[in-house]
Write a structure and sequence with these properties.
about 190 residues, 7 helices, 6 strands, about 40% helix
């Protein structure tokens, strides 16, 4: 088993929380993991990206080579397209459908949608609206993680357990809101 994942988005969207939960779930399955984080200008809405590699065999590098990512999980559609050169031909993109417009020359939504439509394996969902409907607007990242679960090959129960461990100190209400968001796509 080997899964190479690129997580991307804009600072403050919860990319690193997604990476922590995936990593926690993988470690409890006795899998090897390597992670490399690239923090852009996250406090100013800059891009944030993380390489996460999971394997049943030892991993020698924490970076994902061009054309070898199995999954891109993106909180933002333009960021998903930014990392497209890293995706395998049959890889998956799981992305929010709603742009986070933080630059003046942000591409038009239609152009982003056209590019995503050309790809064979894309799940694009409005995670913010789903999270708000659940009463947990800060859990949009967990909605996205839930949508990516099958592409990751990690059982939902393992991700739920990881959410419990990672968010335990924040209290039961936070844990339950995140688990509810995680399961909102099932």
């Amino acid at each position: 088993m080997k899964t190479d994942i690129i997580l991307c988005g804009v600072g403050g969207q919860g990319i690193l929380s997604i990476a922590t939960i995936i990593g926690e779930a993988a470690m409890h399955e006795n899998l090897y993991i390597k992670q490399a984080e690239v923090h852009g200008m996250s406090q100013r809405g800059g891009d944030v990206q993380s390489n996460l590699r999971i394997s049943s065999e030892p991993i020698h590098s924490d970076l994902i080579a061009l054309g070898s990512a199995d999954v891109i999980i993106s909180m933002e559609p333009m960021e998903a397209l930014r990392y497209l050169p890293y995706l395998k031909k049959d890889g998956w993109i799981i992305t929010s459908s709603v742009p986070f417009v933080n630059i003046t020359n942000y591409p038009e939504q239609e152009k982003l949608d056209e590019q995503l439509a050309k790809l064979p394996n894309v799940v694009s969902i409005d995670i913010d609206t789903i999270a708000k409907q659940l009463g947990a607007p800060r859990s949009a990242n967990m909605v996205l993680l839930g949508a990516a679960q099958k592409a990751l090959g990690i059982e939902m129960s393992k991700l739920e357990d990881a959410v419990r461990r990672v968010f335990a100190k924040k209290g039961d209400a936070v844990v339950e809101a995140n688990i509810k968001a995680l399961n909102s796509n099932s």
